[in-house]
Each structure stands twice: as structure tokens, then as C-alpha cells.
Design goal:
Arc Repressor Mutant, subunit A; 2 domains; mainly alpha; Tetracycline Repressor, domain 2; homodimer; membrane (chains A, B); DNA-binding; 73% helix
DNA sequence: TTAAAATCTCGAATGCGGTCGAGTTTAGCA
DNA sequence: TGCTAAACTCGACCGCATTCGAGATTTTAA
């Protein structure tokens, strides 16, 4: 009868995530209590903590799964973007749409990513993926002669990544309302980045 | 006897900030409770909320107060001599040094302000202060002919601000060790920003 | 088969941020 | 000076995340 407990655990774990995701999208992260989640999942409140070490971890686990989806979309999608500016915009808008599919999703993800209390290995892995992807974009732009060669790709990637963060912060801070607003903002940022701001 | 209340209020306010800063440096933001602060400040817990609307506001206010002096000095100094790149670097390094005076302090501050759980008016005010300052830097750079005119100063400010965030994230993520490393990173970012990255 | 060890469960307890409202102090004016 | 309105103070309270601990269930090994 080995594995009975394992199997139950997997079911309970899934029940918690399902309940949490459902409640989070209905009521939002803040308004959803652990007790709500436990009740919907059909378990006791304290039992949740056998599976997740904190409320936010439930959400990050879900985020993690979702991001896998975003990356696979990126990998399969044939890029129609021709120049660097378009490529950057396309890349980040795919990420943006994914991350803000549910508003809370993006916010918590950003909180966990930007100045984490504890390092989260899964998220670090994701960031590395972003950076690798970006470095490839820059490498090919350099090959096409669109940008100067001999630049540190790491700093270029970090630069555009930070602009993406700024766009997201604007979205969550109430400065931009729609995805279109965000796209316009990003477009301006990338123009500045590529062309510089001199006369 | 006019101003008696005003004076007391100012004293209490200062007592709260002092207590908070002291406790925070010792125990960290999370571990310091409002009650601790109230006790050290010699007042009741609820009274803290007459002066500050939330725990983070105490720290934001402290930062605003401390940085105000540094910046007004900077404002008068900066009009002469240096160019945009240097001015930006100077501005952000003052902020960086202040914020990382105590390492934990900086991390907590960033956590509290980057993707807040709920919109916070005081936080908006706080950020607006820095943006206004940056806009002035850009305005005078435009007047000197250093950068193209007709650009949206708001986007320029947001751009450099996001680079500062990236540098800080790098510092807390373990990518740069010393203040000097951070300054070098920022310098590279600002060069990219000003000059663009084309061949 | 069985009994000890390991693990899981969950109601109860803890601690904290934040609010309430009754009591107190001050300001302003007659 | 006396009186009222406005503003301040703080103990008590609320809701919620997280931890405790004691009892239930499952695994392991002989």
C-alpha cells in the first residue's frame, strides 16, 4: 500500500492551488484568507501550512506553472518582428500579457522578484531564461549591424529588463490603464534606449 | 500660548521616527512592531496612527526628510559645470548611499515601495518628489543643448529611475558588492541611455 | 502481524497591523 | 475667564497570517 499518502498529498496540494487560484481571481489576493482557501479545499486551516510555507507561496507556485506556459509560447511562436525595437516590444508584450492575465498574478510575481526576502530558486531560473532570450536578440541585432558590437550584452539585457519593470510598475501604480498604454510606454522607452536622447 | 500643540506634535513625530529608525536598524522592519515603536517613543500604540497612516509611511517620511536636505544642496550645486551623465550619477549615488546606509533598511524600503499591496497616496507623493527633481535636471540639460528638446521629461525620468532600481536590485541580488560597483553599473546604464546603442 | 517512528491534521492560541470610540487636552472666541 | 468645537490620546478590539501541540494516520522494519 506504499504511496497512499503520497497520492493523497498530491491531491490535497492540487486542491489547495485550485481553491486559491479560484478565490484569488474572484476576491483578490488580500481579501482571500487562508481560512477561505482551506474551506474551499475541504481541509483545516493549519493543514495548508503542511503544503506551503506562506500564503504568497501558494500564489508563486501557480505563477511558476503559468510562466512555463509563457515561455513555451515564446519558443514556438514565429517572430514576425523585423528590427530590434519590434523584437523587444514583441517579447515583452507577450510576457506582459501573460503576467497580467490576472492582475494579482503579476503584482505578486514582481514583489517576489524585485527585492526578495529570501531567494527563490525557481524565480531565479526564470530570470535567467529572460536574460538568455534577450542576449540572443541583441546578438543577432549586432550581427545585422543594428547596434554597435563589443557591448556587454548582459548590461543591455539588464537595461531593457528594467524598463519592462518600470512599465509594469506604472501599470500597477495606476499610471497606465490598458495593455495598449503599456505598449506605448515600452515603445517610447525602447526608442530612447536604442537611439539615445541626444539632439 | 499659540503653537503649544504644534510644538508637542512636532516632538512626538520626531520621537516616533527616531524610535522607528533605531528599532528598525536593530531588529529589521518586519520584526519591529508598531507597539515597540510606540513604547520606545513613550506613547500609546494607536497614537502612532495620528501621525502616520501606516507602518511604511514612517520610513518613507524619514527618507523624505533626510534626503530633502541633501537634494536641495545638490540643486544649487548642480547648475554649474557638470554634464547630464555626471548629474544623474551624482543624484542617484546620493540616494544609493543613503538607502544602503544600513543594508536591511534599504532592502525593506525597496520591498515596501516597489510593488505595494495597495495604492498608497503617501508613496505617490514620495515618488513624485524624485521625479520632479529629475525633470529639472533634464530641463536644464535640454536648455544647454545636451539633449534633444520636445522629449517627454516624464518618460526620461521614469527611464533613469528604473535603471537606478535595476542597480539596487543588482546590489541586493549579489551581483554588485560595493558602492563603487554600483556606480560603475549605473554609469554604463546612463551612457547607454544618453548615447543610445547604435553603431 | 505489530508496534514504534514518522508524518499529517486541525482546533486553539499567538502576535501584529490597523480601527474604534470614549475620554482628555487645546484653540479660539466672546 | 469661561465655554464650545476641534483635535489628540490610547486601551480595547478586530481580522488575519502563522505557529503550537496533541491526537490520528501511515510507513517501516522486525
Amino acid at each position: 500500500m506504499a504511496g497512499l499518502r503520497e497520492q493523497k498529498k498530491a491531491e490535497t496540494r492540487k486542491a489547495i492551488i485550485d481553491a486559491a487560484v479560484q478565490l484569488f481571481s474572484n476576491k483578490g489576493f488580500e481579501k482571500t484568507s487562508i481560512e477561505d482557501i482551506a474551506t474551499v479545499a475541504g481541509i483545516g486551516k493549519a493543514t495548508v501550512y503542511t503544503y506551503f510555507s506562506a500564503k504568497v507561496d501558494i500564489f508563486l507556485t501557480y505563477c511558476d506553472d503559468e510562466l512555463e506556459g509563457a515561455f513555451s509560447e515564446l519558443a514556438t511562436k514565429q517572430s514576425r518582428a523585423s528590427d530590434l525595437h519590434e523584437q523587444l516590444l514583441e517579447f515583452f508584450m507577450i510576457m506582459f500579457r501573460f503576467v497580467t492575465r490576472d492582475r494579482e498574478f503579476g503584482r505578486q510575481l514582481m514583489r517576489a522578484t524585485s527585492f526578495p526576502e529570501e531567494a527563490n530558486p525557481a524565480l531565479k531560473e526564470h530570470n535567467k531564461y529572460y536574460f538568455d532570450f534577450l542576449e540572443n536578440i541583441f546578438r543577432s541585432a549586432a550581427q545585422r549591424g543594428e547596434i554597435a558590437t563589443g557591448q556587454d550584452y548582459y548590461y543591455l539585457s539588464a537595461h531593457v529588463f528594467s524598463l519592462y519593470f518600470a512599465a509594469l510598475a506604472g501599470f500597477y501604480g495606476g499610471y497606465s490603464e490598458t495593455a495598449e498604454d503599456v505598449e506605448n510606454g515600452l515603445s517610447i522607452f525602447f526608442r530612447q534606449f536604442i537611439d539615445g536622447i541626444k539632439p
